[in-house]
Specification:
The chain is mainly α. The chain has helices at about 5-30, 45-55, 60-70, 90-100.
Length: about 100
């Protein structure tokens, strides 16, 4: 049992590191980076600003994933974010990745 804990922790840390490049590739393939950047505002807010706004919210991943899928307006100014053709799983992956960019 004592040997399983270090192995499990190593697996979890490795899977998180490996997920980040996959999430960035997903963001690129879904054209998220046409309107958003990690560290500066483009058409929409930076991912760092989004992560800061959602920091500490228990339901941040699910709320952001829903906004990714359905779009929205008024939260970040007058330019609406269109709905995105992503699956619920892809939306959750993207939301988790966006929220990982807090300063």
């Amino acid at each position: 049992m004592k040997q399983l804990l270090p192995a499990a922790l190593l697996w979890l840390s490795t899977s998180t590191v490996l997920a980040a490049p996959n999430a960035q590739a997903l963001a690129t393939s879904k054209n998220c980076l046409a309107c958003h950047a990690i560290d500066r505002k483009l058409v929409g807010p930076s991912y760092q600003d989004v992560a800061a706004r959602y920091a500490g919210q228990k339901d941040a991943v699910s709320r952001l994933a829903e906004k990714i899928q359905k779009g929205g307006s008024g939260s970040w100014g007058p330019v609406p974010m269109p709905a995105n053709p992503v699956t619920p799983e892809e939306a959750k992956t993207l939301a988790t990745w966006v929220l990982s960019h807090k300063k």
